[in-house]
Specification:
The structure is a homodimer. The first copy, chain A, contains 15 helices and 20 strands. By secondary structure, chain A is an alpha/beta fold. Chain A is elongated and about 105 Å long.
């Protein structure tokens, strides 16, 4: 940017001169504001640069805002996108000048020490609160402050890592976007989540605008805008809005579906005209929250596993190719599908009795891998390590049962949702599968289990961490921020807890692949009789 | 405000609910924002009031902003208007609910200890600065911080007085408007005034938006908006813009003139179509800055004085009817006009020699009141106190000379400005005279001196402290804030320092009433010959 220097015939004030020069550069008619906190710094920079230099402007709501002034062209304009998960944080640093990802980092959510799930965090945040029915307007919940501090510290650690990896200073990170569920957004801003988990489940806020990093003690540039993905309600957070944005569904003429499996399974169906969404407890068994050997998709997690149905050879692969520690969601799905196809479990998901097995190869395999405890079978993935007294990866009947419930819930959700708008699965042009789940699972295995509908595999599109992707998108494109508002205003939420159809469909889906196998023509029928 | 309580069928977030209720109440289509700093307080108040209560909203630029929430209807909504003078601060507290003034207070500008005038303050503010040609962007001038602290302390003292007098708490003052000259505005915000007094005289800023009281450590409500009157340039401050607003000139179909005498005489001519302004050093002699016995219009100042031209009886009145301490502007004008009409001074403003006086009554009066020092006469208003060895109020020849220069400058300014747009004085429907000067002077005396044009007295309208009045107006009426922007964009500034016409007219006006007495038909001609 270059402005004409002042003179006796042109005694425009320094900041007016800068605003005029920028207005003619941006040429979109929006006003350009300068926050009080940086007026002096900006004006001095502008003079020091002899009325040239580089003004850092961000697009707020209906206006541009100058947040800093640089004498020399920066090597990059860094901004941080953050997926604020309940258990895990994942962040990337973008160079806004070319859209490139210049660094990524992740870490556990340090709030876990105050509670592993949303409910226990809300209780921790509002523990002292419960003793006072109507707290004073300025009452500070100590628990809430602890949780906010914890998350801000984590974010600052991530910001530091990202900046270091990208070779910029922390205060050269000029924006941050945050995508998280509704409770996480409340804890992030230190706002009372008390009513989120209490009937009628009212969040304090769904959107927060105009927040600056400095106000939250986030140690990037203090005037960096904090874009918080708007949420829709207590159980429909900004992370899902972010996912919808990233999926492109809201811009699509074709009807699509987005499936995001985290703690809950959240599903959205729609196109640029309409959207309908629901959430259900289909997730935990798939995410490592329930199965004894379940774990996140981290080094040591078995992410792929197969059993040859003829030779009964078992092969698996772990993330980072290290010693197996457990099963992540995709490994679990692979394993259960393989057990079904090899007739080790029956259509109810129960281990068959090796003693009653007639096929000698299968009987041998079952004897090697199935063990008993309290007269209940469990499956050992790698029995060979037991000889070395090492811990093996196992799958218990209880895990299998949880898995069947999860997959049944998932299918019932998908079916109820599509039926709600009078569509069949065949009407879907694309099913976007988000999350680590989406990246690693073999859709064919999920179809075998009857978890996902029996559609051509090309219909399924994994997109990874859609919450993070949406957060990246709002940093790169101001229209995406408006798009989020459109998504929020256009979504219809379907409450499943009181939905009769869902309950009926859930019962029907508690078999592999389904009580009605004709819904899954690609899945081979089960040949053996149930084990007992 | 009343909102419907939430329920399972209506799980709108608390703050969304509040915003919706307010939007339907305000019904002007503007968005309603809630700053992060008060989200929790507002949401809790709204719940505590069972979705009723009172949201405090202020009209920012293109939006409403909630700054607090009250459970009960406040007895008043207080806002502070402040005239930030170089030497003096004057403030009022308004109840925004009915526009009433509920308190007023004034005090000296405590920055005076760092310098009595603008120039010395700028030097103090930037003293250390001068050693570094290009200070770092974040360099804090210690002098500037001292000056800012001083003024903020003064404002806090005033705010305390006002709140106490009105019976409200300080943090129940929900807005402040500030009207001051360009340098004072810079010092108020702690922004570098270095270039204001250096060619080409560029202020750092003319307008500052979105400032909150808390950012400046003003101890009213921390989110109270600080409305700062926009300025036009280094020598055309927000105080004058405020005055123009208060005069109503910018809305008037008739052409009017505004005369504001402070440290400078500032004059604006115009109507709703156009405005032209200029400033000149016509003030000091009238404001107590120059004359030895000059003083502000405070208790003890002689504000009225007359000499009967036949009986030579001298009568005067002091403010608050206490012992006379000096002469304020109006007293000075009265006195000089009376001395001229009684033929004690001649048309050049020189004391005549009592020894050469032929009229016995006048000779007696002159002998009583005129004394000599170093062969120069001076006038004693109250010689009787000399017998009690008390200090008398005197007027020296040097004061008279300064007075003549001031009045000549004033008349020359007015004449040059009207001539610039091809008008005569008779074309003016109204001349608004602002300041203490305007309130107290007798326009007839000012006409006698040839300071103000010889027009019917009904043309002159005193309005008092127009800077303060404008500041009050922007608190009461949001359109007035837009009006200020219009004024700023519409004014043409006439530079008098390089104006040849002004210099010629100034010389012609250095007689009482003028070298061309036909311009002042209402003023009796001088009958005696000059004294030497």
């Amino acid at each position: 940017m270059e402005a004409k220097p002042p003179g006796l015939q042109d005694n425009t004030a320094d900041l007016d001169r800068l605003q005029q020069a920028l207005a003619s550069l941006l040429a979109d008619g929006c006003t350009i504001s300068i926050p009080y906190a940086c007026m002096m710094r900006v004006a001095r920079g502008f003079r020091a640069a002899d009325y040239g230099g580089f003004a850092l402007v961000i697009h707020g709501e209906n206006e541009w805002k100058i947040i800093d002034f640089l004498l020399e062209e920066p090597k990059m304009i860094a901004a941080m996108a953050l997926d604020l998960g309940t258990t895990h944080l994942e962040a990337t640093l973008l160079n806004l000048q070319n859209g490139e990802k210049v660094a990524r980092a992740d870490m556990k959510n340090s709030q876990i020490i105050y509670g592993t799930d949303i409910l226990s965090r809300i209780h921790h945040a509002t523990g002292e609160r419960r003793q006072q029915k109507k707290p004073g307007a300025d009452f500070q919940d100590p628990g809430l402050m602890e949780l906010q501090n914890a998350i801000i510290c984590s974010i600052n650690t991530l910001a530091e890592k990202l900046a270091e990896n990208a070779g910029v200073a922390k205060n050269e990170v000029y924006a941050i976007s945050v995508s998280g569920n509704t409770t996480m957004a409340h804890l992030f801003l230190g706002l009372d989540p008390y009513h989120i988990c209490r009937e009628p489940y009212i969040p304090l806020f769904n959107r927060a605008a105009g927040v600056e990093a400095g106000q939250l003690k986030i140690t990037i540039h203090p005037l960096a805008p904090v874009f918080i993905m708007p949420s829709i309600g207590s159980y429909f957070g900004g992370d899902l809005v972010s996912g919808i944005l990233a999926s492109g569904m809201a811009e699509s003429d074709q009807t699509r579906m987005l499936i995001d499996v985290g703690t809950n399974a959240e599903v959205v169906l729609g196109n640029s005209e309409w959207m309908i969404a629901c959430a259900g407890a289909a997730g935990p068994a798939l995410e490592g929250g329930v199965a004894r050997m379940g774990m996140r998709a981290e080094p040591g997690a078995i992410e792929y596993i197969a059993i040859d149905p003829t030779s009964y050879e078992l092969v698996f692969r772990t993330i980072a190719n290290v010693k197996p520690k457990g099963l992540c969601g995709s490994g679990l799905i692979d394993l259960v599908a393989a057990l079904y196809l090899a007739n080790i479990i029956d259509i109810r998901g129960k281990f068959r009795d090796p003693g009653k097995e007639k096929n000698p190869d299968r009987a041998e395999f079952m004897k090697k891998h199935l063990m008993q405890k309290d007269a209940v079978f469990y499956f050992v993935v790698n029995p060979e390590v037991l000889e070395e007294s090492a811990e093996a990866v196992i799958l218990e009947q209880i895990d299998l049962d949880a898995m069947i419930r999860s997959k049944a819930a998932m299918y019932a959700i998908l079916r109820t949702l599509t039926n709600q708008v009078g569509l069949g699965f065949a009407d879907l042009e694309e099913i976007t599968v988000a999350g680590a789940f989406g990246c690693h699972i073999n859709p064919q295995c999920a179809i075998t289990l009857g978890m996902l509908p029996d559609l051509p595999l090309s219909v399924y599109k994994p997109i990874g961490n859609s919450s993070l992707l949406g957060a990246e998108q709002v940093l790169l494109d101001k229209n995406s921020r408006l798009e989020c508002e459109k998504i929020v205003s256009r979504i219809t939420y379907l409450e499943l807890n009181v939905n009769q159809e869902f309950m009926i469909r859930f019962s029907g889906a508690r078999f592999i692949p389904h009580t009605d196998p004709s819904l899954f023509p690609s899945v081979p029928p089960f040949t053996e009789s149930p084990s007992n």
